[in-house]
Amino acid sequence: MKLFSRYNRLLLIISFSGLLIIGFLFYRTLSYYLNRQIDDDLLEELMEVKEFMHDKNTLPAPNFFEDLIVTYHKVEKASGIKTFSDTIYYNPQKRHQESARYLKTDLTLNGQPYRVLVIASKAEREEQIQSICLIIIIPVTFLLIAILLVNRIMITRLWLPFRQLVKNIKTFNVNDEVPFEPVVTEVQEFSELNEAVVTMSLKVKSDYREIKLFTENASHEMMTPLAVINSKLDTMLQSNILGPEESETLADLYKATSRITKLNQSLLLLVKIDNNLLQEQEEINIKELIEDKLLFFYELISKRNIIINTNLSSSSVFTSRHLVEILVNNLFSNAIRHNYDGGLINVVLSSNDLSFSNTSHNLELDQQKIFERFYKDTTSEGAGLGLSILKQICNRRHFSLKYNYKDDLHIFQISFNSEHNN
Amino acid sequence: MVVQPLSKKEVFIILEKMRLLQTVFKFIGDISNMKVLIVEDEDGLRKSIDQYLTAEGNVCDCASTYEAASQKLAIYDYDCILLDLTLPDGEGLELLRNLKKRNKADGVLIISARNSIDQKIEGLSLGADDYLIKPFYLSELNARIMAIVRRRNFNGNDLIHFNEIEINLIAKEIKVKNLPVYFTRKEFDLILYFIANKNKVISRAAAAEHIWGDDADMADSFDFIYTHIKNIRKKLTDAGSKDYFNSVYGVGYKFIDA
Lengths: 422, 258
Fold this sequence. Notes:
The structure holds two protein chains of two kinds.
Chain A: H1 3-56, E1 68-74, E2 83-91, E3 96-109, E4 112-121, H2 123-158, H3 160-171, H4 188-238, H5 244-274, E5 282-285, H6 286-296, H7 298-303, E6 307-312, E7 316-319, H8 321-337, E8 344-349, E9 353-358, H9 386-397, E10 400-406, E11 409-415, H10 418-421
Parallel strand pairs in A: 6-8
Antiparallel strand pairs in A: 1-4, 2-3, 3-4, 5-7, 8-9, 9-11, 10-11
Helix pairs in contact in A: 1-2, 4-5, 5-9, 6-8, 8-9
Chain B: H1 8-29, E1 35-39, H2 43-54, E2 59-63, H3 66-75, E3 80-84, E4 86-87, E5 90-91, H4 92-101, E6 107-112, H5 117-125, E7 130-133, H6 138-153, E8 159-162, E9 165-168, E10 173-176, E11 179-181, H7 185-196, E12 201-203, H8 204-212, H9 221-238, E13 245-248, E14 252-255
Parallel strand pairs in B: 1-2, 1-3, 3-6, 6-7
Antiparallel strand pairs in B: 4-5, 8-9, 9-10, 10-11, 12-14, 13-14
């Protein structure tokens, strides 16, 4: 929920419930005073009745009073209690029911107790109250709406630098050369936030650069010792005293050295792609490239009885040859490596999309994790960098890369022109 | 007439010159006897290269610093110079620049731990013949050196003879006893690789990397070397050639002229 709508909701709840409570209390107070006024009137009328009785020694006629109804009943015994209460009566003049107030008491005339009921209409007074309430509530409601509207506009405007800041943070990429774009604002809180983010972005950038540099240097430094190991292995291989056991050891050593070397090369390649070092661009015929690679990998595919289906339309992309070669290589080796004997590889190239799908013993892979560095299944012989190199190349070149699992096929799809679609 | 005994230094110079003459003459007869300067500061690596190349009758000079290398380059000519780019007291590329300034015809093979395209381009545009990235297999290094020397010394002659086998480098054709035998591109490269490293054991890893380059990271790519060698052997013997391939327990193969 947005901060603003949260605030608005609270404001609305408080102000409307406040309005309701205040309105109710106001109404009640007014009614109370009104009732007291009417009750006073009723008492006065009763005095008049008493006076009349005293003077004329008879009860006044029910229509003796204007706007007032007075009734008498004989009762057994006078109680002397005065009761006020609300009631509804029939107004003969207006010919409809009206709310009213009555006073009930007992009077004695010539020894005969009578119950006297004096009823006075409340209609007019109530109308007055309603008018008063409306006169007060309507402007207050308008005021409230106005406040809410002003709030809305003000808050949207006040939070503008914040929104801009968030937008800039979202577009910020440690990999880009573009520094974080600060937001100019006079609001202290936002400028503090801005400063904090700027400092953080600089720190993140320099840390990231340092890590990259470290990776690069570490990998480079490892290459020379690896070269020594490799050359010594080659020298040992030439000695004539090698028995089967030593040979096996040598073969294992070769394999392990080769793995470290490949790992190092992959790390260096990642750094290079990160650093945008492979910038040269040219028009590349993807179809030709794939056909070349198909020949290149031919033995690897046919030896494992993997069936390969290709559907290649001509397509060319203006980009770095080196990167696209790595891309296609990685797609091929991935599809071969994780396949089973007698499996299937489909390569489909349309003018804009390239998709590789292959069968595998693995079930659906985790979308989020497969492109992470060093993520690999336990049986994989590789370093777990192939797919992250793939991802990195696509990021750099603004290709979109998607992984899907459908009908037992692992599908990797690359769209070359995703930047134009966006 | 009094004959002054020669000083040690003079003896050394004369011996050196004789050796040079010897190698030049030998060289005309046999391509595999070359004079190579190894400029490399890593002792272990330098020794291994020296050992590997010398074993084939080549003459190797070693230099571990910029200073030593430039002194040697000032005095002698080499068929090929192996040049490490990062030396403790200078840049390898500077040596290359000086060499080219003096119009020396030595072949230059850069060996570097930096796989940087810029450096590669710079090195090659300065006149280096090839660029090999560490780590490398000695057999690969040897094959590259041979290729450089061959290019520089046998202009126009693109044929390599090995007993009854004749290899045409331009047409990528192989003839056995004057009859053409068809080999695939990869098989052709392998034969060339083995002949360049004859009498040496070549590991399967080295052979795989020679064929598939950096992409030889498939676990089973080693098996294909086996298949390829099997096919090559069959084609060669079917055409009437001797079987020169010797298998070395599971590690690799040796191409022996025996």
